[in-house]
Structure formats: structure tokens, C-alpha cells
Amino acid sequence: MGVNVAKVFAATWLAVLTGAVIVIQFYALQLLLLLGVAYCFFLLDLPLIWTLRRLYKAQTKADYHRLSGVIKGIMLIGILSLVII
């Protein structure tokens, strides 16, 4: 029971984060920041959506370990976006 509650909690916040990033990208498109939008779409949005889908299917410890690594990579890419964009 605890694992399912944690999955719903994590999935909810992943969806909120993904939505927030997409809203920010729409504002960036209006300012013609195409490189930043492309960077965020391919290196943040797509991995976040992939993580959300894999979280739904995750059942073993190995699945959660893999997702943990992916999320750490997404965080690193987000931090690097502050320097690159």
C-alpha cells in the first residue's frame, strides 16, 4: 500500500513539474528563445514524460533504481540549463 501511495505522490508532482516547464516554454516561444525551448523540450520534457510513464509501470527495485538515475540526470540537465540558456 505504501508503494502505491508514493507512486501517486511522485507522479502528481512530476505532472505538475512537466506542466510548469511547458508553460514556461510557451512564454519563451513568445520571446523567440528557440534554442532554449528546444533544449528544454528534448532534454527536460521528453525525459520527464518518459519517467512518468515508466513510474506507472515500475514494480521492481531495479525499475525504481533506474528511474532514480534518470531523475538525477534530469536535475543535472536542469541545473546546466541555467548556464547554457
Describe it.
By secondary structure, the protein is mainly alpha-helical. The chain is built from three helices and no strands. α1 runs antiparallel to α2 and α2 packs antiparallel against α3. The protein is elongated and about 45 Å long. The termini are far apart. The mean pLDDT is 91.
Features:
85 residues, mainly alpha, 3 helices, 0% strand, elongated
Instruction: Report mean pLDDT, rounded to a whole number.
Output: 91
Number of helices: 3
Coarse structural class: mainly alpha
The value of Rg in angstroms is 14 Å
Order of helices and strands: HHH
- In terms of DSSP E residues, the strand content is under 5%
Largest β-sheet summary: none
What separation lies between the terminal Cα atoms?
A: 42 Å
- Please estimate the helix content: over 70%
Give the number of DSSP strands: 0
Residue windows where pLDDT falls under 50 for at least 5 positions: none
Question: What is the 3D shape?
Answer: elongated
Short description:
By secondary structure, this protein is an all-alpha fold. It is about 90% helix and about 0% strand. It has helices at about 1-30, 35-55, 60-85.
